[in-house]
Design goal:
Chain A: It is found in: Cell membrane. The structure holds 2 protein chains of 2 kinds. By secondary structure, chain A is an all-alpha fold. Chain A is built from 11 helices and 2 strands. In chain A, a hairpin with a 2-residue loop joins strand 1 and strand 2. Chain B contains 10 helices and 10 strands. Classes of the chains: A mainly alpha, B alpha/beta. Bound molecules: adenosine-5'-diphosphate and magnesium ion (MG).
Chain lengths: 290, 244
């Protein structure tokens, strides 16, 4: 029972990590039709920002975590201005090369600046253990799950009911029609990029205290987030989030029941199987975000 | 079918194009409120380009477009929408995974007044088929119904100038009659200037005050609807009618 619960919790934590990264990828693809190979590195950048704010600047976690998200939102503005706005109406090959290049530059900059040794981020909540009868859970993990749920609820409500959210869905469904009704497509591009970067920021702010922080920490996460986006139906945000949690739980299950060594093989094998039978992903190919 | 003296929208020697490509090479004509204008011409003549230029999706490179006496050549599409110029372009132009209601609301995206709901109700009175399907997804409707929806979305702008690119494309003959009748009454009742591009030239000219023929990016002929329908050259070249 305890082991099962612990593994369920591990699965949900990993799922939250993949989902926060996958949500941004799905938003960028679904709304702007851009595949962002650097998205995992935004998560890595956020983790380093949190590290610097805590260990170098000396802020408390409660201040550093929200500031990390805010700074990542600013990074989103820069990313839009420097990369997205220049490639958004260019062919996909150019988009692919430029985001891939950014990813490589970011990883190598991190290696130069921080060295290969992993860093550890301290959150006071790591040491607060909640006792739930037979099982114990760290407050940080509770925060991860709560923060993920609350942020996805906010994303859902924002896309469904706000004027900007409706405009984002409109651009996703028909970019020309969006221009015809007077939606400023560049503004929506900027907002989408900022939201996507902020979710990567939230991933860093919440999850970095649980794992080691290093230049290549996000490489595998990014691949799994991509898997979630593909399985969820390319560009379908809800589908990507659900698929990310399925991947996290599947990993935990195969670690518990089979062996850690086979985890990735099982997860990616499962993905291939799903795509064999449902080539458009679990939730259809529709570019849908609400 | 009297044409007003003072044009609501006027084009003077308009040049426009794509990148290096120059498509419109000096187009001039004016249209008044409460009138219907048909733009006809061969495929690739630049008719769609003309509508896109009036709407502001393409820059005016030379010449001028004025609306209510003021130049709008420097304005973007959002400002032109707010001024009262709306377009229904060729091809599907709605949001397929939104409901009819949401699509109509998106049509009013540039408006911030509180008359939107009343206009929406007015629109579904005018297009009863939309009322029945108000809560269904636009993408689940037939092509003709989507065409109606797109027209209604443009009307949610409360336009003074309405640009229609091949409104009868893909419609059944019965629906074409219906669409042309409503175009005529929209102009007369609401005082709009409607400029439409039509392959269905004979039927279009019958309900038009003005006909404009575009040939290789220039206006090669203009006239009233009846003048055009009786012009031997135009009958032969564009209307497929015997010369009388
Ligand atoms: N987006 C575009 N980019 C480049 N050329 C275009 C574009 N759209 C149309 N054209 C060219 O402009 C010319 C006029 O097109 P268009 O205005 O659509 O013609 P029409 O509506 O009269 O059939 C054609 O030669 C067409 O190939
Ligand atoms: Mg055309």
């Amino acid at each position: 029972m305890d082991l099962l619960f612990t593994q369920l919790l591990n699965g949900l934590t990993a799922g939250a990590e993949y989902a926060l990264v996958a949500a941004g990828l799905a938003l960028l693809f679904g709304i702007l039709q851009i595949v962002n190979f650097a998205h995992g590195e935004f998560y890595m950048l956020a983790a380093f920002i949190l590290y610097v704010l805590l260990a170098v600047v000396g802020l408390p976690y409660y201040a550093a975590a929200p500031l990390t998200v805010l700074l990542m939102a600013c990074a989103g503005v820069l990313f839009y201005a420097i990369v997205i706005s220049r490639v958004i109406s260019r062919p996909w090959q150019i988009q692919l090369i430029s985001t891939l290049a950014l990813s490589i530059v970011m990883i190598n900059l991190a290696i130069v600046l921080s060295g290969p040794t992993p860093r550890y981020v301290e959150s006071p909540l790591n040491n607060v253990i909640l006792d739930l009868g037979s099982v114990r859970i760290s407050a940080q993990r509770v925060l991860v799950l709560l923060g993920t749920i609350v942020s996805f609820a906010a994303l859902y409500l924002g896309l469904k009911y706000t004027r900007t959210g409706k405009a984002m869905r409109a651009v996703a469904q028909n970019r020309e029609a969006a221009a015809v009704v007077g939606i400023g497509v560049p503004v929506i591009g900027l907002v989408t990029t900022v939201v996507a970067a902020s979710f990567a920021g939230l991933a860093g702010a919440l999850i970095a205290p649980l794992y080691a922080v290093g230049p290549t920490m996000a490489v595998l996460v990014n691949i799994k987030a991509f898997a979630a986006v593909i399985v969820g139906g390319f560009g379908n945000v809800k589908g990507a989030i659900v698929a990310a949690f399925v991947i996290g739980l599947l990993e935990a299950a195969s670690t518990t029941l089979i062996s850690t060594e086979y985890t990735d093989a099982i997860v990616f094998g499962g993905m291939i199987l799903i795509l064999l039978f449902r080539p458009n992903g679990l939730f259809g190919k529709a570019v849908r975000v609400g | 079918m009297a044409v007003e003296k003072e044009p609501l929208l006027e084009l003077r020697d308009v040049h426009a194009g794509y990148g290096e490509l120059s498509i419109l090479k000096g187009v001039s004509f004016g249209v008044g409120g409460g009138t219907v204008t048909s733009v006809i011409g061969a495929n690739g003549a630049g008719k769609s380009t003309l509508l896109k230029t009036i709407f502001g999706m393409l820059k005016v490179r030379e010449g001028d477009v004025s609306f209510e006496g003021r130049s709008i050549a420097a304005l973007g599409t959002v400002k032109r929408l707010k001024a009262g110029i709306a377009i229904v372009p060729q091809g599907r132009c709605n949001f397929p995974q939104m409901t009819i209601r949401e699509n109509l609301e998106m049509g009013a995206y540039t408006r911030s007044d509180d008359g939107i709901e009343a206009d929406l109700q007015h629109m579904v009175d005018q297009f009863p088929i939309l009322r029945e399907k108000l809560h269904l997804l636009a993408g689940d409707m037939s092509g003709g119904q989507q065409q109606m929806l797109e027209m209604a979305m443009a009307l949610m702008v409360r336009p003074r100038v309405l640009l229609l690119d091949e409104p009868s494309l893909g419609l059944s003959p019965m629906m074409i009659d219906e669409v042309f009748t409503s175009i005529r009454s929209l102009a007369e009742v609401n005082g709009m200037a409607i400029i439409m591009v039509e392959q269905n030239a004979v039927q279009a000219l019958k309900i038009s005050d003005l006909g404009v023929v575009i040939e290789l990016g220039r206006v090669s002929a203009t006239g009233t609807g009846p003048e055009m329908l009786n012009d031997p050259d135009i009958r032969k070249a564009y209307l497929g009618l015997p010369v009388i």
